Amino acid sequence: MGLVTNSKGLIDMRCDQHVLLTPKQMALADQEAVYLGVPAFDLMAAAGQAVAEAIMAKWTKRPVLVMAGPGNNGGDGFVIAEQLRQHNWPVTLAFMGHLDNMSAEAQAHAKAWKGEWHPLSQTLLNDAKLVVDALFGAGLSRPIEGQVQHMLEAVAQSGLPVCAVDVPSGLDGATGQALGVVAKADLTVTFFRKKPGHLLFPGRTFCGDLLVRGIGIPAKVLTDLRIQTAENHPDLWLSDYPLMKQDGHKFHRGHVLIYGGQWMTGASRLSARAAQRIGAGLVSLAVPESSWPIYAAAMLSVMVKPLAAHQSEHAFQQMLNDSRFNVVVIGPGAGLEGNDKHRVKHAVLETLKCGRACVLDADALTAFSERPKALFEAIHDACILTPHEGEFARLFPHLSEQSGKDKLSRAKQAARESGAIVLLKGADTVIASPDGHAIINTNAPAELATGGAGDVLAGFIAGLVAQGMTPFYATAAAVWLHGEVANEFGVGLIAEDLTDALPNVLQQLK
Ligand SMILES: NC(=O)C1=CN([C@@H]2O[C@H](COP(=O)(O)OP(=O)(O)OC[C@H]3O[C@@H](n4cnc5c(N)ncnc54)[C@H](O)[C@@H]3O)[C@@H](O)[C@H]2O)[C@@H](O)CC1
Ligand SMILES: [K+]
Q1: Which CATH superfamily is domain 14-227 in?
Q2: Around ion ligand 2, which residues have CB less than 5 A away?
Q3: Regions of the chain where pLDDT drops below 50
Q4: Alpha-carbon distance 462 to 439, whole Å?
């Protein structure tokens, strides 16, 4: 049963827990569940009950204001209100909508509410100690304005704790972007599966703690939804992960070739060490002859190969003839000064020309900013681009953060246009493949924003590709390990620690 495809084939139901549904896909999942015989009334009852239970688990009994909107999100609100009332919570219900326009199940649940109905009004906040936001969920279709906007602003001003039903109202579940104003929540309870908007920024900051609750929708409805996006988790790639074999040999674990620059000698060395630590059998650094002593003195188990100044391009090309180098990393510390840029571009294009898997980072991306097309025309499917937002904007100016598009769509479009796997970095790193699949990473702590962390990541990816992992899943695994190591290490992290602390995390993974 296929959900998320990769170049190798299909991810099966083992990892269906981690798929992300757009609000549209969620509506289809609901419909399919009803088609399979689960009554819509029961789905809504289960959804409301799950939220009520989460509220009672998180907060002590207190006066609650439930704000119920005009659609099924509001229907959930009526269930929550009635459930809390039955547990002797003091509940005030404010409804904005017309009963006649609601779905049959929402009407039925609204009629089952035993308390009073109030129109939405800011004065209701005076007596409340908790707000339940059941105004809009998956059906939000335009920016919030007018009276609801004022109400949400008053909720924010009040400082009261908020529990959001499905998504904080005003948040686009597909993109993580705000449509007008958003009601920031302390707890969000969503149903069946997470939505991309819960994980992408700024959406993630609006959700508070996020809980996913089953409401009786069978997992088999996922089969026909053409799901393309998942949250990063070892379940996605562990079966692909190159765990060491007892009878393994270093030549079976690949050979990474890293291009080193003249001046910023630390960056490529960080990549080299990272590739070694994650298990590449051999790692070589190709460096300018003039900097060779610096590199060679610092690297013990990495082979450092000098590129003679008068024929460095030719020498690198010659090196690529050696088919034992199965992955090439270009970019960290590669340099853009003077003739460096020309050399870097040449190295990238030669690497691509011979079909070698490659990780292109930093200067290797910026080197093509005047004519990204020259890079895209050369790219093949084992090529991974690892830009931060600045580098990304240089290659894809129409897809920059300022374009107004969300990060998931931007990364997917960039992958499609370039033909490469695109890893768009950030606290919500997105890994997108040209075939439309994408993984959102969620385990990166703030400590990762430190110089050299990207160089280490490039090395991790290369090291995994060298050992035979498919580029898409190697990238996902590397990003996850990178985040996990940073979490494990905690405060005071510098890039070197990412490599040194990796073995602990690998041990746990094993
Ligand atoms: N069977 C189902 O479909 C289930 C749905 N559930 C709940 O239903 C929600 C989705 O329900 P709906 O599709 O009815 O959508 P919503 O309840 O999110 O809202 C739809 C309504 O809001 C109006 N609207 C949209 N944007 C607006 C804006 N900016 N200002 C004013 N009005 C606006 C629409 O015209 C429509 O009347 C989910 O988020 C979830 O909470 C749950 O009850 C589980 C089962
Ligand atoms: K909501």
Answers
A1: YjeF N-terminal domain (3.40.50.10260)
A2: 133, 137, 164-165, 169
A3: 1-13
A4: 18
